[in-house]
Specification:
Blueprint (H helix, E strand, L loop, with lengths): L6 H5 L9 H32 L2 H16 L3 H10 L23 H8 L4
């Protein structure tokens, strides 16, 4: 997204319609490769952590997070909570009734409304 409100900066942007299907496929492939590389790097970081971080060091890090959380650092609290497995599930409840405004209409009336009355 351009930073300024200048029409010139916006005119320089390419829209998906500006690309051929071949170019779009190439861009998607490039993005997929980058995503796979990022996953590999993350996996290698986890492996390095497992290889070079002892259980005692991990406990010290968790204790440090806990101390920061006790002192009021909200982000430290969230990380600590999630790390020890207490992250709350995010549930969304929808309540109420759905009313069908067409419930009382006959088939002929519905077809007429839909423009299918011939």
């Amino acid at each position: 997204m351009p930073r300024g409100k200048s029409p010139k900066s916006r005119a320089n942007l390419k829209k998906p319609d500006d690309f051929t299907s071949k170019e779009l496929r190439e861009r998607a492939l490039k993005g997929a490769k980058a995503s796979a590389e990022a996953r590999r790097r993350l996996k290698s970081f986890r492996e390095l952590d497992a290889d070079f971080t002892t259980d005692d060091e991990r406990k010290e890090m968790l204790d440090a997070l806990k101390l920061k959380a006790k002192r009021g650092n909200i982000k430290a609290f969230e990380i600590y909570r999630d790390t020890v497995g207490l992250k709350p599930k995010e549930n969304v409840e929808i309540s109420g009734e759905l009313a069908n405004p067409f419930a009382g209409l006959t088939d002929a009336e519905l077809k007429k409304l839909a423009g299918m009355d011939g």
